[in-house]
Amino acid sequence: MENKKYVVNFFVIDNTGEEIDNDSMTIEAVDERKARTETMIFLQKNYKGNRWEIESITLAE
């Protein structure tokens, strides 16, 4: 299967409840599920100790 590009929007909240980041990134993956998994791994590594939420994942055109 060929990789597709997905645009992922997310935000990060610190332990006081303040939003510290709101961004989007592009992930290449075979499907949306794999794109979500790769995004979660990225967020866990880069925002350790903070809460984060994936707002949306859309197929890039």
Discrete helix count: 1
Stretches with pLDDT under 50, minimum 5 residues: none
**Averaged pLDDT:** 93
In the CATH scheme, the class would be Alpha Beta
Dominant shape:
elongated
Strand content: over 45%
H-E string: EEHE
CATH architecture: Roll
Helix content: 10-25%
Q: Largest sheet at a glance?
A: 3 strands, antiparallel
Radius of gyration: 12 Å
The tally of structural domains comes to 1
How many β-strands, per DSSP? 3
Q: Tell me the distance between the termini.
A: 18 Å
What's the arrangement of strands in the largest beta sheet?
2-1-3
Structural class estimated from helices and strands: alpha+beta
The third-level CATH topology is Ubiquitin-like (UB roll)
